[in-house]
Amino acid sequence: MRRLLLLPALVLTLACGSSKLSQREAESDIKKDYPVQVSLRVPESASAVKGSPEHAKLVHLQEVVTKGGWFAAVRTEEGDRERFNFKILPQAPKDFRTSAKGFEIPAAEAEFVRSTRMEPTRDGAKVTYQIRLARPTAYYPAFQAMYNVKIGDTKNRFATYRKDGRSWILQDTDETFKKAE
Q1: Which residues lie below 8 Å from residue 114, measured CB to CB, with a gap of 6+?
Q2: Are 70 and 93 in contact (CB under 8 A)?
Q3: Which of 2, 9, 39, 152 counts the most CB atoms within 10 A of its CB?
Q4: Which secondary structure element, helix H or strand E, spans residue 41, and what is its range?
Q5: Does the pLDDT value for residue 168 go beyond 70?
């Protein structure tokens, strides 16, 4: 009698897949989205309150991109705020891309390293994984001046899985950059 029940249970388990997400499955799913192109984002126009951390970042960005001779920056005062307008110059390299809110300067690639932790949630799982900065471009020094990161540095990212029946679906990651083209 036990053998009769064991065979259908084994067939059902093999046919439907595992009910638990393995770290290996999560890694292979997430790895498909890498490497991604890491870019220095330059807004076409941005404003910040004078003396704020955001203002300091914009001042630093202005120094970095105008020093390379790639952009012209115009600062105008608007009461207690200051507006920064960045305009790309004709002598700027052709691989700078325009985006919805400004420009993107390709700096390096980020590659998948490994998953470090898996936590079950109410309706799925949260996976913590690491990416590493690799393959810098000629414009990497500008990115490094802004963010003070080195090639080879790792950073944690998070992915969310949703359970759909007996299968697992990669629902979302917090990666902000896009796959390299």
Answers
A1: 27, 129, 130
A2: yes
A3: 39
A4: strand 36-43
A5: yes
